[in-house]
């Protein structure tokens, strides 16, 4: 059975940084040569029309095989779990290169960065959490999580890492409230969304009738809306977090594995393996519309979005697996107002 903070449910255990203070820093740095960027120049609005996302660059990941999983960001870098390659790729946002490759993690899935501790956390499907010094990427320690570890979330307020783990109920994406106690958890095997109150330990379950494979999730906490990516049939589900009621079900991209809410523009970005990013616009908390379908590449279903990072730095990152004659790459999209 999976756990959250010691509770029975399908999910996670929180790891406080205080438990890591005495960890030995005895791993050695294993740098790989940086790969030069082949980023093209930004395309103009005239060539892209009124698209909300414009492809502005690409960073090749030479030699990286297989599929990708989750993203994290920090200290001017993007961290990508290359699950099929058993590596984590560290990419410089400003330099447009692969600066480092972390090896030795079997089946890396979730990844999270703590700026306060300057540590990088990597979850392995084989049941370990790997903790690295983010300055040199030396391994500090590992923590066992029987049944495999998947999604990670960092709670800056409590300085805790939440780890989705377990062996009998497979959880997918989960989201933490910042101004409230709830954790929202996708449990596709049970066709449910679970809501865990971190204060009372109460668990509420929302059944998903006629909807299968609820994988990615994003949260609009201000408007009390939870966005869930459904694979069968391909839908974007919108739920009222105060009641669990379904607000909207919109046709969406197939094979979705990531989902992000852009609070600044009130948009939802939903990449899918069929080769598109669907962009949905919030008209009001009860009404949503498809704004654009951005063509990408087959298999491009995992992505990273971290909000505006500064003036002119509002980006969306998409991992594209290697395909015939082309190396894997991280595409960089500039978000348009």
- Major β-sheet strand ordering: 4-29-28-27
CATH fourth-tier homologous superfamily: YVTN repeat-like/Quinoprotein amine dehydrogenase
Average of per-residue pLDDT values:
86
Question: Which percent range fits the helix content?
Answer: under 10%
What's this, in brief?
This protein is mainly beta.
Topology:
Elements: E1 3-4, E2 7-8, E3 12-16, H1 45-48, E4 53-61, E5 71-74, E6 77-82, E7 87-92, E8 97-103, E9 108-114, E10 119-124, E11 128-133, E12 139-144, E13 149-155, E14 160-165, E15 174-176, E16 182-187, E17 192-197, E18 203-207, E19 212-220, E20 225-232, E21 235-240, E22 246-251, E23 260-262, E24 267-272, E25 276-284, E26 287-295, E27 302-305, E28 315-320, E29 328-335
Antiparallel strand pairs: 1-2, 3-14, 4-29, 5-6, 6-7, 7-8, 9-10, 10-11, 11-12, 13-14, 15-16, 16-17, 17-18, 19-20, 20-21, 21-22, 23-24, 24-25, 25-26, 27-28, 28-29
């Amino acid at each position: 059975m999976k756990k959250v903070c010691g509770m029975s449910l399908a999910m996670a255990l929180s790891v406080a940084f205080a438990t890591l203070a005495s960890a030995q820093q005895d791993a050695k740095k294993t740098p790989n040569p940086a790969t030069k960027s082949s980023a093209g120049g930004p395309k103009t609005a005239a060539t892209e029309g009124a698209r909300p996302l414009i492809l502005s660059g690409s960073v090749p990941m030479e030699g990286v095989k297989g599929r990708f999983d989750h993203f994290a960001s920090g200290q001017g870098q993007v961290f990508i779990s290359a699950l099929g390659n058993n590596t984590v790729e560290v990419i410089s946002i400003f330099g447009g290169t692969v600066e480092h490759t972390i090896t030795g993690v079997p089946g890396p899935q979730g990844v999270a960065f703590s700026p306060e501790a300057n540590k990088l956390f990597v979850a392995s499907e084989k049941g370990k959490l790997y903790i690295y010094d983010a300055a040199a990427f030396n391994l500090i320690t590992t923590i066992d999580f029987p049944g495999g570890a998947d999604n990670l979330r960092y709670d800056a307020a409590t300085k805790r890492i939440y780890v989705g783990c377990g062996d009998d109920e497979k959880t997918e994406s989960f989201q933490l409230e910042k101004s409230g106690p709830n954790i929202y958890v996708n449990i596709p095997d049970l066709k449910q969304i679970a809501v865990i109150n971190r204060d009372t330990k109460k668990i509420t379950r929302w059944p998903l009738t006629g909807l299968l494979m609820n994988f990615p999730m994003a949260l609009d906490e201000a408007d009390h809306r939870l966005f869930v990516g459904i694979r069968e049939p391909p839908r974007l589900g919108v739920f009222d977090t105060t009641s669990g009621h379904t607000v909207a079900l919109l046709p969406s991209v197939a094979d979705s594995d990531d989902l992000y809410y852009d609070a600044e523009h009130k948009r939802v970005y939903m990449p899918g393996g069929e080769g598109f990013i669907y962009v949905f616009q919030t008209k009001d908390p009860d009404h949503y519309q498809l704004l654009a379908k951005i063509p990408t590449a087959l298999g491009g279903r995992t992505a990273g979005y971290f909000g505006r990072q500064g003036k002119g730095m509002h980006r969306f990152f998409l991992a594209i697996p290697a395909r015939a004659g082309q190396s894997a790459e991280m595409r960089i999209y500039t978000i348009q107002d």
